[in-house]
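Homework-ish question, so no full write-ups if that breaks the rules, but can someone show me the predicted structure for this set?
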Amino acid sequence: MHVEGAAQAIEPMRAEAGDIALVRRVQKGDKAAFDALVLKYQHKVLKLVQRYVRNPAEAEDIAQEAFIKAYRALPGFRGDSAFYTWLYRIAINTAKNALVASRRRPVSYDLDLQDGTQVQAHARLADTETPEALALTDEIRRTVNEAIEALPDDLRLAIVLRELEGLSYEDIARTMECPVGTVRSRIFRAREAIDRSLREVFDGGLGRIGDLE
Amino acid sequence: MTDRIKEQLSTFVDGELPDQETALLLKRLERDDELRGALSRYSLIGAVLRSDGDVPAARQVAARVSAAIAREPFRAAAFVRLPDRDSLLHSVAGLAVAAGVAFGAVLIVPQVGPQDPAAPEALMAQAVESPIEPVSDVADVVDEPAAIYVTPPATDSTGGIAPAQLANYLVAHYGYASPLVRRSVGVGLMSAPGEPALVEVAPREGQAGK
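A: Not a homework solution, just the prediction itself:
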């Protein structure tokens, strides 16, 4: 099964509810909850920032700045929108401000800031510049897709229904006619199998696994 | 790290982990770098699957953000803060006096008559306009986070409700009050000694991109 090109990303509603729960924890002073949000979204935010800033190190700096700004503004987040939508806008603003500060031109000019899918459609317009970064992102994509292909049918279906279709565990259980606990286990085993391949990529010289946090 | 923990982590990534287990997992996450790495990779897998293009692997972002926010002071949610229950009870007498004075003022000031539907709103606007620190959008807030808060000066300890508290209370409950009460207390506010109000304005996430 080819998942590459399965374009319409659907952010799972349950994941959004989970984000809101984490946000509430942060608002009560739980910094670990914010750590979890950063770990969860750092790759997406970095990808977003790289639409504007090609240099990987600079993009990481801007992504970091965006998260810190989000942390400082989080006491005022009321959950009227999804957390990532809110974070997305902060990251865009931070990247734009960084561009203005450095008097550089953005990589792409016609992004509709209200529509995250358009950013995805422009994903190839501004890949990271260094050969190492290019090789790594390419290798990550290839590895994930190959690992998905190699999964047993039940594991592959479970994780695809989850990640691509955005179904809840309960809906997946109904679709696959199995208990929710089985869904949970299948999705975990699918992730673990993909993760094993991914770790080999990072261990294999393109990056160190300890760096990927 | 056991498979049980990793399965919990996988469930957490999907937003399906119960609250109690989430709390325990977050504690573990604080001290377990391997678990943090797994969370990062699980999220990367999802991002790659859902993406048309390549997804870069963030290497240092989480660690650096974590170090940075560890130095940040905790800031409570910036919603309008109400007086706590005890101080509210102690302030009832003061509120009654203020309301009485306000009602008298309404009778005395003929230009603010009940036939003018805009009057209560105008009064309230005047009463709270100047003390409130304006916050236009999240972009401003995140660029200058210190502007979120307006710290009040110390209030006196007479037991009467402070105008700042009253203003905050009104802002929060304005929509629930009858027009007469709104007008009365609004005038009461205006007649109180000047004092900057504590109004912590929540940034509106809906305007972040503007």
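Now go work out the reasoning yourself. Hint: Confidence is low (pLDDT under 50) at residues 79-89, 112-163, 185-203, 206-210 of chain B.
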